[in-house]
Amino acid sequence: YHRLHAKETRLSQFNRTEIKAMLGSYTKVLFVRDPFHRLIATFLQGMGISPSFSSFIQEVLDAGMHNGSVAWKPLVSLCRPCLIQYDYVVMFGFLRQELGHLLRRAGLPAGSLLPELTDSQVQWTYRWLSEQMFSELSAQQKKQLSHFYRWDLAAFPLSGSFLSD
To answer: Where are the coiled-coil regions (predicted)?
Structure first.
């Protein structure tokens, strides 16, 4: 797109014609991760000040949609997949396979740029972590989280998520 923009410029600051021109000139890739896995990663990275996962989840629920961090806001509210036609949607857990395809499409050498972990190792680790962390939550917290992420669960193929149960 011909117009120079600062890193801080948000898409919403442009008019519809500019937005359409910009989005049409880029390859749009959306990286999707199970929202419960995003919560676990955020907690483990120390982004919450809570001593336990359960109390961290309560902070997330109390903050809600408007006061929440981008680290745990629903993706649908951040990336607008119903309004923006993404060229690729890459699911965490299938990164190696999907990134290889993306890199080849871009004409880049796929082999040397891919992460070392295999997708099955990542999936197994998060499955185990999810079981442990999910068991710490109350029934009410589980229900509230499922409601909070209902649009992500509807928009993306996350049928294996603990929140979709």
So the answer is: none
